[in-house]
Every structure is written in C-alpha cells, then in structure tokens.
Fold this protein.
Amino acid sequence: MAGIYVISPAADHPAPSIYTCLRLWRLAAESYTLSMSLLALSIELDEIGCYHRAHGLPPPAPKLSRLVYNRALPRIVRFVEELKLPVTVYVSGKDLEFDDEPIAMAREMVPRGHEIGNHSLSHRLDLGMSPAATQAEEIDESAALIRRVLGFTSVGFRSPAHELYPQTASLLLDRGYEYDSSVLPCPLYFAAKFAAVSRAIMEGRPSLPAGDPRVSGAPVSPYQMSREEGAHVRGYGLFEVPISVVTRMRLPLLGSAFTLLGRVVSTMLARAAAKLPVAHVSLSGLGFLDADGDGVRYLSKVQPELRTSLPQRIELYRGVLDILLDRGMEAVTLADVARRALIS
C-alpha cells in the first residue's frame, strides 16, 4: 500500500537530503500515475466574445453574447448525462455575473458529481505575460464568483492560452490550487497559432502573442512542473494534467482536432489514447453550437470545427469517448486525477 514511511539512517549513513526526498516522492507519484487507467473530460465554456478577441474581430452582436451558456450548455449537460460521464467545466468569472436559467443549470452540475474549474476572470489571452497583480486579480476574482454564484471552490485552473508561466503557477500554489490543466503539448497546435497570428498581422487585425512554443514539448503524462523554468519542464512545483496527445506527431485529443481529422483518424486516436494512464479529452462550448441554427456560421472562417454540422460533431465526440469507456477506462474529474496521483 502507498503510504508515508520514516527511514532511520544508520549511524554511518547521512540522512537523505530534502532534494532527494522530493525527487523520490515525485518519482513515486509519477510511477503511480503510469499505473492508472483514467478518462477525464474537460469542456471550456468560452463565450463568443473570446473567439472574437482571439482573432482580432469586432465585438459580437449583443444577441450572441450569451450563446454558449444559453444554447451550448444545455446540450453539454444532456451529452454528459447520457454518457454518464463526470466532466470538468472551465468557466470565466465574468460569465457568471448573471442570474438566469443557464447559471442555475451550471449550479446544478456540482451536486451531480461534476467539477467547476477556474478559467480566469476575463479570459485574457495574455494572462501569463501580465503583471503579477493583474494575474492575481484574474485568479482571485474568478474564484470568488465561482464560490458565490455556483457554490463551488475550484481546486483546478486552466489558462486561456493553453500555457502556464512560472509566475502564474506560483500564484496558484500560494492559493492552494491542487492542479493546473493548461498545457497542450502539441507542436501542430502552436504552429497553427503562429499561422493565425501571422494571418491577422497581414490582414491588419489586432493580434496577441502566439505564446511559448516550448510548451509543445512538455511531458505528455501528468507531472509536476518546474517552479523556475515553467510548465515545459518537470520539477517540484504545481501538478499538471496536460491535455492528452498521442502518436509521434503528438496529435491532440481536442474536439476541434476530431472534426478536422474525421471519424477514421479520430477512432485511431481514441484507440491509442486507451493505452494511456490518463486520457484527457478537451472539448469546447463552441463545439456544441449549431453554426446555422445558432447564427455563428461567420466564425467558421476562423474556427474550422463549425464547418462540420452539430450532429456530426456530437457523433464524433461520442465515438471517441465510447471507445475509451469500452476499453475499461474509469471516468473521473481532473481533480480526481490529481488527487489520486499526489495522495498515492
């Protein structure tokens, strides 16, 4: 059984250093992680305005400002309930400043075994490069809104930009967060980001930095990140549950990737992911919108997943998750993944 043991060194042998103890503890936790067979599903509830800012577009029409909560969230709840899957939903605090039916629906997810993760207050894509005081405000105010509105204390965080800088990780550790789930170790994803930034610059649209490409080479299984060097290096800091990638190409288990690659390749990815200790599949609220019925067809120019019909997308998502469940993986929240690894 896993536990804590006190070793009394012989008189002629010095006691192990703190560094050695930390290293052994980290190796034990990571070895235990490799023995697991867990499936974790996460979904980001980013509103339409987030995509407009990411692509340098003008603000969306007012009627579209709450589209993800009004239209996508009910579909998400129905989707996970039908599959009997716990889900970790990432929310931005500003999206909770309402008292409406979608908020009530989100609140009801908590007692059903789902998790609410902190996705920052206002979904700033430059969060990691902002001053420490700004980062702290984004983390703390969002956490306060999640507690007050949804009645849940978040223990996990996801940066809006799929990367995590050392300053942000330090702030999360100071606040008692149990894990982060920002890292997407996928070179193709960062290549696409650089291409999108270049296109925006050429078209004269506002553009944000493409981020730190070193994250694309980060470990692919859950790990502790380095306090000093950041999320792309193992260390003794915050626990990271990266979005899963498979094959030598590091193809991601992302909803947008499933729609781009199609059913056959998505099936291959799912079968490869079933061999992982932790298969972390990440979807988005946007992926549960109907491009025509919900009035967002115009976004398909910059968000290719909207070029696939909603029924086809949901069938793809369900197909991937069914394969992982049929292979015997245990469905858990991301907080469960972190706790099982760190308390082993």
